[in-house]
C-alpha cells in the first residue's frame, strides 16, 4: 500500500494509533535478531565504515525508532560475537514525500547512537494503485468476483517485482532485507481474513452513506482500497520469480486482539487505527467532510459485529 497516514500528534494521528503495527515489530524482533545472527555476512564489512539501515515506510514514529533500534542492537551483537569493533550507524527514514517528517525528526530519541537522515518518496517508483475489474458496490477484493481478486493479485505481483528490483540495487553483498506486512494464511478464503473483514465493514459504512444521500453511488463504485494481503505462498512465488533474493525464513506471526478499556471500546480502537491509516486516501476521493461521520459509523459497526471473534482464527 502507498497512501499517506495521518501526521502530527493529534487524537487521530498515526503516532497515537499504531499500536497494532508496534505489536508486529515486537512479535518479529526475535526472528530478525536470529536472521542477523545467522545470515548477516560481515566478513567484507569493515567496522571503520558506516553501517547503513533503511526503514522503507517509516511513517511518523515512534514505531520506526523501535524497529531501527532492534536492528542496531542485533548488528552490534553480531560484531561483538566475532570480536570486531562495532561500527557507526546511519539510518535512512524513508516514506511518501508528503509524510510528516517534521513530527518524525522532532521525535527522534535523544539518546540514539546513529546518524539520521530523511529520504522521501520511494513508493512512487514501486507501489501503484491497483486497477481492478469493475467492482460495483465494493471497495476491496474480499467477497468480490474472481476477476477483481485476480486483478489485485496481479497488481501485487507487479509491485513486488518493482520493490525487489529496487532493493537488489541498494543492498550490499551479504546484507539483509526484512519485510513485515499484514498477510493471509495459506488456503484461507479472502473473506475470512480479519483485515479484509475490516475493509468490508468500511465499505458497508460508505454504502450506508450512499443510502442517506451523503455521497454518490458512483463515488463508491470508483473507489478501491490499494491493499492486498498476500499469503506466504504468494510472497514466496514473488521472490522466486524475481530471482534477486532468496528467503532465509518466513513466518506468519499472530497478533493480539485489540483491547479497549473503561472509556474506549475495541471498536473505537479499530476505527481510530483505520482512520489514522486511511483517512488521507478517503479524503482525497470523497472529501474531508465525511471523515468524522464515516469513522463514527465504523466504530459502531465494529462494536455491534462479531468480527473480533474471527481474530484468533487468523
TrEMBL record:
<dbReference type="GO" id="GO:0008168">
    <property type="term" value="F:methyltransferase activity"/>
</dbReference>
<dbReference type="InterPro" id="IPR029063">
    <property type="entry name" value="SAM-dependent_MTases_sf"/>
</dbReference>
<dbReference type="InterPro" id="IPR005299">
    <property type="entry name" value="MeTrfase_7"/>
</dbReference>
<keyword id="KW-0489">Methyltransferase</keyword>
<keyword id="KW-0808">Transferase</keyword>
<keyword id="KW-0479">Metal-binding</keyword>
<dbReference type="InterPro" id="IPR042086">
    <property type="entry name" value="MeTrfase_capping"/>
</dbReference>
<protein>
    <recommendedName>
        <fullName>S-adenosylmethionine-dependent methyltransferase</fullName>
    </recommendedName>
</protein>
<dbReference type="Pfam" id="PF03492">
    <property type="entry name" value="Methyltransf_7"/>
</dbReference>
<dbReference type="GO" id="GO:0046872">
    <property type="term" value="F:metal ion binding"/>
</dbReference>
<dbReference type="GO" id="GO:0032259">
    <property type="term" value="P:methylation"/>
</dbReference>
<keyword id="KW-0460">Magnesium</keyword>
Amino acid at each position: 500500500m502507498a497512501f499517506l497516514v495521518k501526521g502530527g500528534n493529534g487524537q487521530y494521528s498515526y503516532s497515537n494509533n499504531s499500536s497494532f503495527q508496534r505489536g508486529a515489530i515486537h512479535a518479529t524482533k526475535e526472528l530478525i535478531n536470529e536472521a542477523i545472527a545467522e545470515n548477516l555476512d560481515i566478513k567484507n564489512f569493515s567496522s571503520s565504515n558506516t553501517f547503513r539501515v533503511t526503514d522503507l515506510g517509516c511513517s511518523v514514529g515512534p514505531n520506526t525508532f523501535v524497529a531501527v533500534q532492534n536492528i542496531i542492537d542485533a548488528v552490534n551483537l553480531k560484531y561483538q560475537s566475532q570480536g570486531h569493533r562495532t561500527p557507526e550507524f546511519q539510518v535512512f527514514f524513508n516514506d511518501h514525500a508528503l509524510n510528516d517528517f517534521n513530527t518524525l525528526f522532532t521525535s527522534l530519541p535523544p539518546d540514539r547512537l546513529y546518524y539520521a537522515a530523511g529520504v522521501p518518496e520511494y513508493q512512487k517508483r514501486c507501489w501503484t494503485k491497483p486497477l481492478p475489474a469493475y467492482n460495483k458496490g465494493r471497495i476491496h477484493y474480499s467477497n468480490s468476483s474472481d476477476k477483481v481478486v485476480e486483478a489485485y493479485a496481479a497488481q501485487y505481483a507487479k509491485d513486488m517485482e518493482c520493490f525487489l528490483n529496487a532493493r537488489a540495487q541498494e543492498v550490499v553483498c551479504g546484507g539483509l532485507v526484512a519485510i513485515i506486512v499484514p498477510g493471509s494464511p495459506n488456503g484461507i478464503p479472502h473473506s475470512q481474513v480479519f483485515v479484509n473483514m475490516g475493509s468490508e465493514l468500511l465499505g458497508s459504512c460508505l454504502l450506508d452513506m450512499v443510502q442517506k444521500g451523503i455521497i454518490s453511488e458512483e463515488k463508491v463504485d470508483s473507489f478501491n482500497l490499494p491493499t492486498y494481503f498476500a499469503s506466504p505462498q504468494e510472497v514466496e512465488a514473488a521472490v522466486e520469480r524475481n530471482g534477486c533474493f532468496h528467503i532465509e525464513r518466513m513466518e506468519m506471526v499472530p497478533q493480539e486482539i485489540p483491547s479497549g478499556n473503561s472509556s474506549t471500546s475495541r471498536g473505537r480502537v479499530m476505527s481510530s487505527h483505520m482512520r489514522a491509516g486511511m483517512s488521507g486516501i478517503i479524503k482525497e476521493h470523497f472529501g474531508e467532510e465525511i471523515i468524522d461521520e464515516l469513522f463514527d459509523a465504523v466504530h459502531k459497526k465494529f462494536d455491534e459485529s462479531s468480527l473480533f471473534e474471527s481474530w484468533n482464527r487468523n
